[in-house]
Amino acid sequence: MSDGDPVSDAQQVRYDQARYVDDGQYEPLLSEKDRTRVEIGDDSPLPDDLTRDELELPALSEPELARHYTRLSQMIYGIDSGPYPLGSCTMKYNPKFTEDVAALPSASVHPDRSAASIQGTLELLSRLQDYLGRIGGMDAVTLQPPAGAAGEFVGIRVAAAYHEHNGEGHRDEVIVPESAHGTNFASAALGGYDVVSLPSDDEGRVDLDALDAALSEHTAALMLTNPNTLGLFERDIEKIADMVHDVGGLLYYDGANLNALLGRARPGDMGFDVMHYNVHKTFATPHGGGGPGAGPVGVVDELAPFLPAPRVRAAEDGARTGDSDSASDSAGAGASEQRYELFDPEHTIGKVHGFQGNWLVLVKAFAYIARLGDEGLADASAKAVLNANYLASRIEFSVPYGPFHHEFVASAGEQDAADVAKRMLDYGVHPPTTKWPEIVPEALMTEPTEVESKDTLDRLAAAFNAVAREDDETLADAPERTTARRIDQTSAARSPRLSWHELADDS
Amino acid sequence: MNGAETRASGSPYAPHTADERDAMLEAVEADSITDLFDIPDAVRFSDEFGIDARTERETRRLVRSILGRNENLTELLGRGHYGYYVPSLVDHLADRSEFLTSYTQYQPEISQGFLQALFEYQSLLVELTGLEIANCSMYDAATALGEAATLADRVRDTSGHRILVPDLLREERRSTLENYVAGTDLIVEAYPTADGAIDVDELADAVDEDVVMLYAENPTVRGTIEERLDAASELATDADALFVLGSDPVALSLLQRPADVGADVVIGDASVLGLPTSYGMGLGLFACREDYLRQVPGRLVGVSEDATDRRAFTLTLQTREQHIRRERATSNICTNQAWVALRTAMHAAALGPNGLVDLAKRDVTRAENLAERLDDLVGVSAPVHDRHHIREFVAHVDQPAPAIAEDLETRGFAVHVVGKHELQCCVAGVPDTELDAFVAAFSEVVR
Questions:
Q1: How many Å apart are CA A288 and CA A338, to the nearest integer?
Q2: Helix %, strand %, coil % for chain B, to 5?
Q3: Given CB 3.0 to 4.6 Å as the disulfide criterion, which of A55, B143, B259, B382 pairs with B395?
Q4: Best of A91, A110, A486 to disrupt the B interface by mutation (most B CBs within 10 Å)?
Q5: B218 touches A: beta carbon within 8 Å
């Protein structure tokens, strides 16, 4: 890349997304390709009052379906398509080999199998619990929560059970910083808590005076992201932990931003009592268009008896013939000979998923951690922070708060951040998260992750800068090179059409 | 570049050369990467995790070695998680990296393909349930049941606080439900069933004005098919309670349409299509009547138009969701099971309506046949319940059930123990030849 005019630089990588147009419409729905009505009929093995009358769905051949879904996939932008700097989402590259290990036939077991017959599954879960405990500085880990928000909910339920157990069931408030992820508020509310919103100080961190005022004997927990959503490390974290603990509250760590800290700092060492990990962020399992993820929860010893049931552990009477856990994790080693078992923690909150969570995602997360090891994990955070700093230094939008780590929040200034994002699509890059956190006007929350090279970051910066120089009209008309042009959100919400049955002119 | 054969000195997925790193540090005016971390000394981590790096090949070998400890059994297991054969089409197309590696469709213009696939998934569920609204996924059946309860809490007109669930309900589902309603004043109570199905008289006694939600499953966890859903639904309606029905896409292809028996909400595990046996990983099905549109949890894909007036898809009615409504959101869900929903839609499309109906019919006849064959064995009677069954059934064994299950396991077969003298067997996904071998093994065990 030259480093001349950003607009012309960016235009070198202008991009046209696949677009199929058929009879004035984009790629037809399956239901427009075929609809076949099947009567349940006389050959039904059930009496007809126990069955439906008919089922009407598309009946298409395999070649037709292969084309349908291939075309749909071409109308999607993924991490493999280009940079994807969505702040707070940690859109890092998903190593291909993790799909292979999750697809092993031996991974395909039923949750009601006897523990003796699935020692491999239990060993993998146990070893992943151990890895996550070490990475977060936590004493005990559950892998059951199927997503980050589910992990938050577990944390909230564990906190409630802990306070109840100690005769402190009167605690009815959870404190959440104004700039926190929306799930924090919603998870606390789902747990029945009143949410106390905490303003930031002038520098974008927790306002200690406001925190002091918010804390009381009603405080069940403070939920905190560190670094916070501005990418700033909460420098007073030890003080904050003391303040929360002094009133008898618990400190909850939202793991969404853990990719900033691997090998540099651990929530457990900062005084956090309970945390969740987003394995689909930090540990590179694919986001899959919105999920599945997994949101394991780690806790300090004191909270371990309250974790969801069942948990996995090495059986004490096991026929252990190998070395200690750490030795058996050496690179050349394979499975252990340890026996593993399921158990219910003494004061368990019960279940938060019908079975043991998103198993196939956990297999991928385990493989990622085992592949990277200490050095790889620490390097991931190092490069993620370097990339964010480098990208921020190359863009013309101002970044009001710092020093930031793996992500930064720029301001689109006089431009509309949402329009900036739409226009960036035309330059073949995915835009940042927009208009949030609200502490930054017209926020562009940007997290490039460690997987982008210097060249890619230069091209990404060129896209930012090209858009920064464009006029409002161009931005308002964008995007023009994606499959669909700007989509009318108001129309979608005003007259909801949520299935093909609702489409007036469907055939 | 680090290849798959090298152990990483850093992340193998961070492409920086040393020169590039140095140039970048210079650009940001830092002497070292450590200088970029604004972390107080007191909380800096200077120890090691003690996790060795591995080559890609070593890592694959490690996982294969660990999972190799799982015994290779023929699973006659169900009770909410099933192992149907998933066509190769699903794996290969769902694994296209645009599907796998994209995020939630907050930029719809560049995500039309996934949005359309999710819209088609929603449409599939609308067809199967007869209800107008289906969201584009919850985590699993248990959490979808929890979400149905919080919806019931939000939409109720009365001051009631009881949720009624069948006494047969899987303990794990009930426990998850109890966690979801822990923040409300709702309580969960079981109503008695008779011979594996709703006892309408008993249920009528249990239902009063204090009930806000009545939950039933069809089929039940014991594989029986409910015959009095309309009566149950009427009891719920009379009490001004929501009638919530648990099911799944295969069963729904044949059994009574939930809308026809008065269901207000349908939940369940939709990943019976799309996922093989996955140690309980699922896909929460959530569908409801149009009346609850503004109260639906989770994401919804809707139709709109783009600037060229062509039809386009987008996430819609997002003001229900946590990223906008925060503590007043209809749910805390953010990350969902979108990619599993894609797989489910693909699997359903691959089967088509004929394939779906045939699969469900075979689940009825094959379960019946297996029950008959076990019933012929000495000391076994099956099915225990004098009901129609789909997919699975409970068998009574004269000998202690755990001992028989253990013996079967040594012969390569896994079944559920559901009582001191009760085993449960499921035919879904088990080829006929293996059912033959199972019957042979069973006859040896009880001989």
A1: 34
A2: 45, 15, 40
A3: B382
A4: A110
A5: no
Element containing residue B284 per DSSP (H, E): strand B284-288
Minimal CA separation from A121 to chain B, in Å: 6
Per-residue pLDDT, A321 = 44
Structural contact between residues A268 and A136, judged by C-beta atoms closer than 8 angstroms: yes
Q: For residue A352, list chain B residues with Cβ-Cβ distance below 8 A.
A: 143, 176, 179
Nearest Cβ partner of A354 from B104, B176, B323? B176
Confidence category of residue A507, pLDDT binned at 50, 70, 90: very low
B106–chain A nearest CA distance, Å:
9
Percent of chain A with pLDDT over 90: 91
Mean pLDDT of chain A: 94
Element (H, E) at B269: strand B265-269
Q: Which of A240, A341, A353, A383 to mutate to test the interface with B (most CBs of B within 10 A)?
A: A353
Cα distances from A219 to residues A216, A225, A248, B428, in angstroms, run: 5, 18, 7, 50
Enumerate the domain spans of chain A.
Answer: 20-76, 98-371, 373-494
Task: Report the pLDDT value the prediction gives residue B321, as an integer from 0 to 100.
Answer: 86
CA distance B402 to A437: 56
B129 has pLDDT over 70:
yes
Q: Which residue type occupies B72?
A: N
Among all residues of chain B, which has the CA nearest to that of A70? Answer: B93
Out of A65, A265, A331, whose CB is closest to B52?
A: A331
Residue B37 in contact with partner chain A when CB distance is under 8 A: yes
In whole angstroms, give the CA distance from residue A470 to residue A4. Answer: 17
Query: A5 with A419: CB under 8 angstroms?
Result: no
The helix-helix angle for B432-446 and B338-375 (nearest 10°) equals 50
pLDDT tens digit sequence for A297-321: 999 999 999 999 999 999 986 555 4
Question: CA geometry: angle at B269 spanning B266 and B275, to 5°?
Answer: 150
What pLDDT sits at residue B2?
Answer: 46
Domain B88-345: CATH class, spelled out: alpha beta
The pLDDT of residue A8 is above 80: no
The gap between the terminal CA atoms of chain A, to the nearest Å, is: 50
- Closest by CA to A255, choosing from A157, A390, A360, A138, is A138
What is the domain partition of chain B in residue ranges?
Answer: 18-67, 88-345
Contact B244, B152 (CB under 8 A): yes
Q: Is the dihedral of CA B272, B273, B279, B285 positive or negative?
A: negative
As a whole number of angstroms, the distance between CA A439 and CA A188 comes to 22
Tokens standing for residue A430: 């995915």
- Between the CA atoms of A447, A448, A450 and A454, what dihedral angle is there, to the nearest 10 degrees? -150
Secondary-structure class of domain A373-494 per CATH: alpha beta
Distance between CA atoms of residues A418 and A424, nearest Å? 10
Please answer yes or no on whether B15 and A452 come within 8 Å at the CB atom.
Answer: yes
User: What would you report as the CA-atom Rg of chain B, rounded to the nearest whole angstrom?
Assistant: 26
Domain A98-371 has CATH 3.40.640.10: yes
Distance from CA of A247 to the nearest CA of B (A): 22
Contact A11, A466 (CB under 8 A): yes
**What's the CA gap between A165 and A32, in Å, rounded?**
58
Q: Is the Cβ–Cβ distance between B290 and B317 less than 8 Å?
A: no
Distance of CA B81 to the CA centre of its chain: 8
Are B50 and A287 inside 8 Å of each other by CB? no
Q: Which two tokens stand for residue A379?
A: 């390097």
Q: Indicate yes or no: pTM above 0.90.
A: yes
Task: Round to whole Å and give the CA distance between A352 and B288.
Answer: 22
Among candidates B7, B64, B335, B283, which has minimal Cα distance to A102?
B64
